[in-house]
């Protein structure tokens, strides 16, 4: 990924940047939030830290927006369990008790790779700990792949600046399959 070009194009899209995180700041954020940045995201955040337009200020170790974003995928799933009859067959018979259903969902999400907030409700899985993980748009259980990797995500999010006027969303082709989260993407594809 050409991070210099990505930063320039995002600045044209009016995304503000703070100086990039130091290696020590990356480590502090990972420890504070109990996550691991994939290498491409860590490299991008070390080059420049986007701090506007829905991006998270990872330098602020007390940032409540990060805490809320980390809880968002499970909260959205629980919302759909309660209000939209979401219950995959793979989880067995749906319990009569809503609190038991939430506990099952919580356990399933806990077994899944941790999602690292990228921007607004876009997430990149921390596992596998390698470059090229897909970026997911997570809104309740409406989960789609928003980019086969970080570069394609940025290109989709800021398509006008990356690909020119009239460019729209490019459907990712053959993104890396991520345990649990890709399965949810496929559930959405099957329901469509």
Topology:
Layout: H1 3-12, E1 17-19, H2 23-33, H3 39-47, E2 48-50, H4 64-83, H5 98-111, E3 115-119, E4 122-125, E5 135-139, E6 142-147, H6 150-157, H7 159-163, H8 181-191
Antiparallel strand pairs: 1-2, 3-4, 4-5, 5-6
Helix pairs in contact: 4-5
The total count of helices amounts to: 8
Helix content: 40-55%
Instruction: Give the tally of β-strands.
Output: 6
Query: Which radius of gyration do the C-alpha atoms yield?
Result: 17 Å
Whole-number total of structural domains:
1
Distance between the termini: 32 Å
Show unreliable segments.
none
Portion in strands: 5-15%
Which labels suit this protein?
two-stranded antiparallel ribbon, 46% helix, 4-stranded antiparallel sheet, alpha+beta, 8 helices, 192 residues, globular
What does this structure look like?
The protein is α+β, with helices and mostly antiparallel strands. The protein has one domain (3-191). The chain is 46% helix and 14% strand. It has 8 helices and 6 strands; from the N terminus they run αβααβααββββααα. It has helices at residues 3-12, 23-33, 39-47, 64-83, 98-111, 150-157, 159-163, 181-191; strands at residues 17-19, 48-50, 115-119, 122-125, 135-139, 142-147. A 4-stranded antiparallel sheet has the order 3-4-5-6. Strands 1-2 form a two-stranded antiparallel ribbon. A hairpin with a 2-residue loop joins strand 3 and strand 4 (122-125). Helix 4 (64-83) packs across helix 5 (98-111). The protein is globular, with a radius of gyration of 17 Å. It starts with a helix and ends with a helix. 31% of the residues are buried.
């Amino acid at each position: 990924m050409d991070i210099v070009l990505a930063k320039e194009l995002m600045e044209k899209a009016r995304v503000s940047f703070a100086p990039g995180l130091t290696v020590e700041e990356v480590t502090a954020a990972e420890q504070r939030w109990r996550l691991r940045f994939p290498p491409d995201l860590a490299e991008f955040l070390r080059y420049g830290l986007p701090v506007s337009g829905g991006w998270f200020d990872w330098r602020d170790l007390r940032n409540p927006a990060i805490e809320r974003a980390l809880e968002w995928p499970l909260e959205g799933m629980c919302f759909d369990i309660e209000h939209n009859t979401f219950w995959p067959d793979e989880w067995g018979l749906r319990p009569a008790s809503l609190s038991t259903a939430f506990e099952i969902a919580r356990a399933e999400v806990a077994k899944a790779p941790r999602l690292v907030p990228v921007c607004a409700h876009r997430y990149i899985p921390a596992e596998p700990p390698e470059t090229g993980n897909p970026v997911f748009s997570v809104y309740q259980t409406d989960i789609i792949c928003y980019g086969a990797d970080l570069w394609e995500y940025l290109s989709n999010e800021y398509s006008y600046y990356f690909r020119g006027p009239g460019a729209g969303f490019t459907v990712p082709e053959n993104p890396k399959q991520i345990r649990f989260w890709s399965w949810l993407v496929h559930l959405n594809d099957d329901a469509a």
